[in-house]
């Protein structure tokens, strides 16, 4: 049959449109579709294809912003296996990847699927443990999916469902039964601005359909595609009229369509008609009709929530502003993806709480070091274990710091040779928590978060205890030469201090025996207050272990075994695994020759616990082999990793919070730093060479101080002695200088205060002289009588000379000894 056409409106489905578009290209006939929204059908590839609807890819940014607003790191895509369904998925995947959301599973349902096939797919979704779904389907298949999902109890609390515009634009005509199965669904669709034109049309529509209402009961409501269809007819009519083809439309100069595609006629006015439609603009029922690049330009999307028998508007989305509650509010200029810009909504199960992300978390069952992770059951029939420990407390704190709610289920797992990827690969677990060390070999199979605890590997050995019973244990850390040198240095320093303080400090005056004792007392105090090492390790470094072929222990199923073999080159036959601190203690106590080991290598957090239990028996020695610490484990590419890492930073930088967790599980812990300050791994006893620099600096400082003081003393008093007694020998003058040195320096601030107090007490207003003044006067007379020549201070602190019989000079002597 031969058909003559000038334009084609339709077809309805994207798969059909692809064939018809090719016919239109060959015949140069405009193909106008208001429902073929697949992104794979592009008007830019065929100029005779015009889409009077929005491309489905226009909504992906809005859908991604919704996922981002609620912080879901994982989501499952459910779509139909058609041209319409498959073509949007690459655009959605790319948009979700930009915001860091992972799609671990995609559920593809053919339109021909029966109920049992769909139920099977729904059961698979329930087993995958993810409860956040995005549905991209047509109304016919989507309505069936939600009805079966409700029967499978997947429309209950804890689930979240979103739909694209293909399904949400057709909700109004659906039956109340279908709407009831979609309670709590979140969706978007192009926003239709209310207008008088639209209201008048809806009124006429309902009035004209009143007589046949019973026959078309399910289609009495207008939907978006119906409005686009109406605007398409208007656009074509306006285009035909502008092209001057109204009188000949469907009659002349038309293309002939027949079964032989090779003999298609060419429509001569097809290009002119196409260009006229593209340039046509008007205000239609769906809003402003304007084609950009051959299709309807996207604008505003409405975000809605299915509640009861209708959809409730909770906000809007625009490419310029993101989310907003009111389109008329232009105060917010910045682009927003915050859920605070949306109105409150109801989730499936009539819940007001956002459905959480869910994780099946593997927890390692271990026998030792349960301070980090402890898994126990109340009874043999109890399937749910009690999980506690430092790592679990940190996880809880990190979970609370996430920007989205997280539901978790702990799954006890026994470690498999130090690897953690088996259960993740088999999808038994979504994550691991515990005292899991971040190392390069493991990172080949899984992803780690940032570390929540620092770590590193070190060696612990026994200490020698025989000398602890000795009276002279405190002498052990230093060699004899060092002790002697230290004693001489301290005595010399004490002597210098006594010289500097003797004339100005009462504490440094008195009988010679007392002064000598003071010098030795000061030196002894300085010596005994110095830090003294107490214990000595039995092994000082790894070289000694390897040279003698000693056995070495490590924690079972730990990466430390490979470190000892590859990095430290210890043969596997010399390695012994242990699990608990008690086994560590027994192995080290027995020693390498009695079935035990000479040393144990383990990570710092474990060694702290071990040393806290046995603080005086063992110590750490040797270098620290750094690693990256403890972290949580996720599958490679998991979107939870960046969220968890940021939350770990927030928790660990809060020192009060992390310290409270540490104190709860490690209250009496000794630090390895404390152990290292007590034991030197390099030498049993320190020698003089270790402190040459210290002795040199102290000796120079003391000597310079002494020389400066003596120079000032001689410079101030030697001229006076030489002037007053020119006939005295040098030795005699030195003796007098020594006697003068033994006297108080009355010019110092220490004794000026005493002199002022004496003058106040000796005031003439006092009727009787003070006994203290008489004593001082007698002491002064006695001092004068003991010497022929006495050096006397005047008021300015300078010296003058007086004979024993010189009464005039006596009047200048102060009333103090």
């Amino acid at each position: 049959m031969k058909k003559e056409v000038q334009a084609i409106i339709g077809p309805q489905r994207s798969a059909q449109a692809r064939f018809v578009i090719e016919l239109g290209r060959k015949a140069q006939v405009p193909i106008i579709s208001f429902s073929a929204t697949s992104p794979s059908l592009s008007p830019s590839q065929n100029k005779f294809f015009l889409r009077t609807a929005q491309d489905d890819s226009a909504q992906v940014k809005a859908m991604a912003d919704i996922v981002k607003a609620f912080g879901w790191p994982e989501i499952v895509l459910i779509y139909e296996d058609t041209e319409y369904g498959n073509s949007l998925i690459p655009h959605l995947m790319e948009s979700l990847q930009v915001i860091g959301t992972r799609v671990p599973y995609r559920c593809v349902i053919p339109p021909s699927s029966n109920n049992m096939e769909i139920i099977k797919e729904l059961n698979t979704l329930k087993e995958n443990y993810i409860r956040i779904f995005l549905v991209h389907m047509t109304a016919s298949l989507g309505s069936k999916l939600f009805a079966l999902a409700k029967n499978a109890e997947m429309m209950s609390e804890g689930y979240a469902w979103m739909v694209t515009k293909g399904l949400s634009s057709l909700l109004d005509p659906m039956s109340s039964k279908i709407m009831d199965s979609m309670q709590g669904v979140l969706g978007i669709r192009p926003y239709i601005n209310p207008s008088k034109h639209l209201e008048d049309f809806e009124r006429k529509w309902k009035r004209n359909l009143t007589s046949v209402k019973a026959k078309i009961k399910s289609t009495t409501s207008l939907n978006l595609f119906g409005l686009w269809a109406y605007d398409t007819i208007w656009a074509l009519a306006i285009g035909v009229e502008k092209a001057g083809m109204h009188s000949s439309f469907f009659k002349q100069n038309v293309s002939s369509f027949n079964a032989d595609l090779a003999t298609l006629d060419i429509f001569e006015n097809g290009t002119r008609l196409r260009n006229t439609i593209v340039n046509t603009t008007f205000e239609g029922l769906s809003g402003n009709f304007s084609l950009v690049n051959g299709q309807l330009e996207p604008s505003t999307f409405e975000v809605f929530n299915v509640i009861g028998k209708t959809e409730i508007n909770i906000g809007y989305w625009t490419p310029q502003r993101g989310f907003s509650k009111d389109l008329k509010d232009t105060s917010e200029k910045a682009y927003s993806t915050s859920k605070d810009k949306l109105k409150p909504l109801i989730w499936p199960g009539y819940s007001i709480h956002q459905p959480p992300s869910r994780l099946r978390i593997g927890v390692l069952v271990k026998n030792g070091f349960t301070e980090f992770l402890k898994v126990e059951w109340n009874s043999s029939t109890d399937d749910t274990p009690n999980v506690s420990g430092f790592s679990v407390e940190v996880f809880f704190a990190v979970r609370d710091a996430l920007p989205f709610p997280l539901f978790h289920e702990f799954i006890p797992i026994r470690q498999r040779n130090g690897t953690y990827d088996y259960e993740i690969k088999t999808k038994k677990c979504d994550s691991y928590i515990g005292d899991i060390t971040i190392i390069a070999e493991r990172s080949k199979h899984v992803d780690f978060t940032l570390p929540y605890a620092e770590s590193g590997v070190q060696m612990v050995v026994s200490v020698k205890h025989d000398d602890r019973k000795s009276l002279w244990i405190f002498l052990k850390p230093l060699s004899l030469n060092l002790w002697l040198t230290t004693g001489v240095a301290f005595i010399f320093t004490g002597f210098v201090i006594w010289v500097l303080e003797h004339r100005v400090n009462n504490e440094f005056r008195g009988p010679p025996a007392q002064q000598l004792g003071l010098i030795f007392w000061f030196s002894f105090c300085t010596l005994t207050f110095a830090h003294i090492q107490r214990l000595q390790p039995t092994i000082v470094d790894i070289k000694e272990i390897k040279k003698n072929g000693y056995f070495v222990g490590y924690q079972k199923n730990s990466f430390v075994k490979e470190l000892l073999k590859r990095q430290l080159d210890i043969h596997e036959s010399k390695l012994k695994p242990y699990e608990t601190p008690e086994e560590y203690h027994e192995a080290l106590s027995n020693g390498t020759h009695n079935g035990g080991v000479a040393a144990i290598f383990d990570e710092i957090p474990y060694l702290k616990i071990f040393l806290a239990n046995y603080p005086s028996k063992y110590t750490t020695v040797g270098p620290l082999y750094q690693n990256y610490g403890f972290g949580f484990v996720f599958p490679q590419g998991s979107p939870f990793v960046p969220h968890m890492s940021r939350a770990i930073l927030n928790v660990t930088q809060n020192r009060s919070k992390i310290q409270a967790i540490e104190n709860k599980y490690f209250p009496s812990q000794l630090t390895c730093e404390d152990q290292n300050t007590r034991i030197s791994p390099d030498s049993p006893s320190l020698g003089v060479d270790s402190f040459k620099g210290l002795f040199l600096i102290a000796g120079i400082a003391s000597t310079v101080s002494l020389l400066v003081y003596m120079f000032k003393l001689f410079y101030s008093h030697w001229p006076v002695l030489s002037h007053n007694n020119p006939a005295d020998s040098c030795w005699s003058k030195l003796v007098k200088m020594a006697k003068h040195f033994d006297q108080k320096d009355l010019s110092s601030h220490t004794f000026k205060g005493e002199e002022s107090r004496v003058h106040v007490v000796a005031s003439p207003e006092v009727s009787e002289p003070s006994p203290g003044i008489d004593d001082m006067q007698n002491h002064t007379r006695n001092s004068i009588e003991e010497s022929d020549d006495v050096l006397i201070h005047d008021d300015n602190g300078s010296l003058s000379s007086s004979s024993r019989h010189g009464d005039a000079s006596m009047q200048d002597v102060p009333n103090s000894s």
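The two ends are 144 Å apart (CA to CA). The chain has a mean pLDDT of 79.
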